[in-house]
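Quick review question:
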């Protein structure tokens, strides 16, 4: 029995069978063998999971003009989960803090009032109520080729989000993070990743 642990990696042992001998091997589709205990293998599996099961699926959804909220959900999920790996900590009981730190990491120039609205009205709205709160609008109209990613109306709790551009930023951020993570010179970043994985 093969169990997929990412799109291109699988394990051969059955995790549902008791008394099965421990196996720390993981395999890639071409049958190359890797050790699950190796940090570089963990990074490859992590990259494959995020890229293939989230980012690439969201990219495919761009073809559907009604998929903006699903794309936005994938992007918002990325924000909090990714910062856990960068910090090397679990966000349990600190979701708001971690989400806000994640947004700052992706959008360094972002203003505090917009971060707070993204937390309360987008992240909490999507994951607690299944929809963003009032005042949050999305637009990814291909005809207008809207360049803006996030826009807050000054003095009001209204935000316009382009989920396609948001996904582009997520994609850039992830590529940069993985490149740094694969570099053995980035000791602290790799240690934090291993703590969180």
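Suggested answer, residue by residue:
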């Amino acid at each position: 029995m093969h169990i997929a642990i990412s799109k291109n990696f699988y394990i051969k042992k059955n995790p549902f069978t008791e008394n099965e001998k421990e196996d720390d091997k993981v395999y890639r589709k071409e049958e190359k063998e890797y050790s699950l205990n190796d940090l570089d293998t963990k990074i490859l599996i992590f990259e494959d999971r995020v890229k293939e099961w989230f980012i690439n699926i969201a990219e495919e959804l761009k073809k559907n003009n009604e998929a903006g909220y699903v794309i936005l959900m994938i992007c918002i999920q990325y924000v909090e989960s990714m910062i856990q790996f960068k910090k090397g900590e679990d966000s349990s009981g600190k979701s708001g803090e971690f989400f806000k730190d994640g947004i700052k990491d992706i959008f360094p120039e972002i203003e505090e009032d917009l971060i707070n609205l993204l937390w309360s009205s987008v992240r909490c709205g999507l994951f607690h109520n299944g929809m963003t709160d009032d005042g949050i609008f999305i637009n990814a109209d291909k005809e207008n080729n809207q360049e803006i990613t996030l826009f807050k109306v000054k003095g009001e709790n209204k935000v316009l989000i382009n989920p396609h551009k948001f996904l582009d930023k997520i994609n850039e951020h992830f590529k940069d993070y993985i490149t740094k993570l694969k570099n053995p010179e980035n000791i602290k970043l790799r240690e934090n990743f291993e703590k969180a994985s």
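Why it works: The two ends are 24 Å apart (CA to CA). The chain is about 50% helix and 10% strand.
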